[in-house]
Amino acid sequence: MREQDLRKMKIGVLLGGRSAEREVSLKSGAAVYNSLRSLKYNVVAIDAGEDLCGILKKQKIDIAFIALHGGHGENGAVQGMLEIMGIPYTGSGILSSALAMDKEATKKVFLYHKIPMPAFKIVHASEIMTRRKTAKTGTAGGEELKTGFPLPWVIKPATEGSSVGVEIVKDRSGVNGALKRAFSYGEKVIVEKYIRGKEVQIGILNDNVLGGVEVKPSLEFYSYEAKYTAGMTEYILPPRLREKTYDGAKQTALAAHQALGCSGATRVDLIIDVKENPFVLEVNTIPGMTETSLLPKIAESAGIGFGELLTKILRGVC
Ligand SMILES: Nc1ncnc2c1ncn2[C@@H]1O[C@H](COP(=O)(O)OP(=O)(O)O)[C@@H](O)[C@H]1O
Ligand SMILES: [Mg+2]
């Protein structure tokens, strides 16, 4: 989209929403709104809480900047509604959003495209019920979850974000408790091999790699607390990797973004193991968008300021 066309448009920043990540989204949305306003765009902030459809009809926006995290705002539902209403929007489309939000679906697509990822097993709540019943009757199966790879494991809900419900389990005795807690968020749980190494996140914008950041939490892993408590995590730009390893991580991240068919800005989470091999954890289709969030930090280190990043995202909308 050309700059002069964008200047004529009424931009609606969708923020808030009803997901568990509402608070984070309000912050992202406010930062996006303030920056676009200071750049003199015609912009309104829209809380995607109740009756989003009704508000959108009233506001008559020409384009939506989606700053929603989690739930309907990130899983393709809001994207579908905007398509039906004929409103172009930033970021990934319906299918890519849905695939990226569901870690089981992501993994199945990654298998097809040979994207490296940790060994995993998907566990459905119904299987656990069956296993319990079999264990009670004393027949084969037992209580033990079999994955085919050794502990430690990372146990996580399939459709959450922000590390909600993610636990590292070091021995068998912790498995059932972590599974139970992960199932409190939904029907599907991912059990993954724990990869020891450096955590790196790569930012992608309109099919180009912007760069990456190394995330070094002071806690055991990049948990909810480590993500949202100031000073709990060190962010190192660029990541402390050999050039060849960093290039490999960038290529892998771009391949993951493209495998899911993503558009606009994404942030790909990876672990680089001690042998310097990259493993993709997930693709975030609506990365945090405050000025100090990771994708804006990565963009800044690539010479792209916050305002410019936002206009590039908007101009990337077809
Ligand atoms: N297989 C793994 N090996 C090592 N650490 C992991 C693994 N999976 C997740 N983690 C840790 O948990 C965090 C959250 O996991 P992630 O899969 O990115 O879920 P979320 O969608 O909640 O961000 C990661 O940033 C990382 O610190
Ligand atoms: Mg993550």
Distance between the termini: 6 Å
Which radius of gyration do the C-alpha atoms yield? 20 Å
The neighbouring-strand order within the major sheet is 10-9-8-11-12
Q: Output the CATH homologous superfamily of the largest domain.
A: ATP-grasp fold, B domain
Unreliable spans: 137-142
Number of helices: 13
Tally of extended strands?
12
* Proportion of residues in extended strands: 15-25%
Largest pleated sheet: 5 strands, antiparallel
Shape: globular
Number of domains as seen in the coordinates: 3
CATH class of the largest domain: Alpha Beta
Structural class: alpha+beta
Which hetero compounds are present in the coordinates? adenosine-5'-diphosphate, magnesium ion
Overall residue-averaged pLDDT value: 94
The SSE string, one letter per element, is HEHEHEHHHHEHEEHEEEHEHEEHH
Helix content: 25-40%
Indicate the CATH topology of the largest domain: D-amino Acid Aminotransferase, Chain A, domain 1
